[in-house]
Amino acid sequence: xxxxxxxxxxxxxxxxxxxxxxxxxxxxxxxxxxxxxxxxxxxxxxxxxxxxxxxxxxxxxxxxxxxxxxxxxxx
Length: 75
Prior knowledge:
This protein is an all-alpha fold. The chain has helices spanning 3-6, 13-28, 38-53, 61-70. This is Addiction module protein.
């Protein structure tokens, strides 16, 4: 591994989290360079078709978040 990169492991947790956020923002700023695989496109098409057949079957984002947060995963 590049010796310069190993310095990342010396960062505090807060600094590491900020670095990850900065890296993600950098990646997200060039969406045309993020590959979407064929199987991902197929899955999105299936989900869209299911939704169009029954638009009321989905959940609002806020409700879905609340449901996910209320579950006790891994306990």
